[in-house]
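Q: I'm building a small set of examples for a reading group on sequence design. Run inverse folding on the following structure and report the sequence directly after it, with nothing in between.
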């Protein structure tokens, strides 16, 4: 029983970081109706951007801010340049374009940074007692920063002018444009915000999980599961499901093996999708 508080915190660490990646994925799908296969690689680039900028600044928190800005702006504009010409084309072309971008980014990361794992020490070495163990304070910082960013994103979408415009374009792009909403700027914001969320998550987790060229592949699958389970295009739903997924995985690891936890997670997602599809079918019949 003494493991439960620690595992609850571990679940929040995993869930809050996964929520950032998945929320960015959901935001992009909600506004542009596209799935970005390179979202996990922006997570990877966030880690490398932190590792690289830390060598010049020597300040972890400043480097994390730099990583978020660089990945958000540069990555978002790159993604926009690739996807923008294909927005009115087949969805399959957009999927192939983002998949190609993912493969290119992984290869470039391997060529530039090498295939080895990059390690960074946590900026806070202190620990606090949790039950019978000492828990890293930095892990608590990950939870706090992740939840604050998610809350800030939710408030932005609900109350800020550009947040309202994002929701308007997601609901009806043609009508939003007719009412004077600057659709191209809203699209650019969606690309940049989505990329920045993944960059923040990747930079935060480097001291915990390290970074290597294919770390994004380990993240993107779970992000897709979260987005599908939370409702495609649903920012808040993706965040909540990611937090729940982290807790289920952490608590499940107490009693069963990690492989069995993965199978359980997939089973839960399948059940959720079946229940949701039946509910939607019932609403259609009504």
């Amino acid at each position: 029983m003494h493991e439960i508080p620690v595992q609850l915190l571990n679940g929040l660490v995993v869930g809050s970081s996964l929520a950032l990646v998945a929320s960015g994925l959901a935001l992009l799908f909600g506004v542009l109706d596209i799935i970005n296969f390179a979202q996990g690689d922006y997570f990877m680039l966030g880690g490398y951007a932190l590792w690289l900028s830390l060598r010049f600044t020597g300040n972890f928190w400043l480097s994390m801010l730099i990583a978020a800005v660089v990945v958000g702006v540069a990555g978002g504009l790159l993604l926009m340049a690739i996807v923008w010409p294909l927005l009115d084309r087949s969805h399959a072309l957009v999927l192939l374009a983002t998949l190609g971008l993912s493969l290119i980014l992984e290869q470039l990361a391997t060529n530039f940074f090498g295939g080895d794992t990059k390690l960074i020490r946590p900026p806070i070495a202190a620990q606090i007692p949790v039950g019978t163990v000492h828990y890293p304070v930095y892990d608590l910082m990950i939870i706090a920063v992740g939840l604050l960013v998610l809350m800030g994103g939710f408030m932005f979408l609900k109350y800020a002018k550009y947040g309202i415009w994002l929701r308007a374009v997601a609901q009806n792009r043609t009508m939003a444009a007719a009412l004077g909403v600057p659709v191209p700027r809203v699209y650019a914001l969606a690309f940049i915000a989505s990329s920045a969320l993944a960059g923040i998550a990747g930079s935060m987790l480097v001291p915990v999980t390290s970074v290597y060229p294919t770390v994004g592949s380990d993240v993107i699958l779970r992000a897709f599961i979260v987005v599908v389970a939370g409702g495609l295009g649903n920012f808040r739903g993706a965040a909540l499901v990611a937090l729940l997924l982290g807790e289920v995985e952490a608590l499940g690891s107490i009693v069963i093996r990690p492989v069995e936890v993965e199978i359980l997670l997939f089973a839960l997602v399948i059940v959720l999708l079946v229940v949701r599809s039946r509910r939607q079918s019932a609403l259609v019949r009504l």
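The chain has a mean pLDDT of 82.
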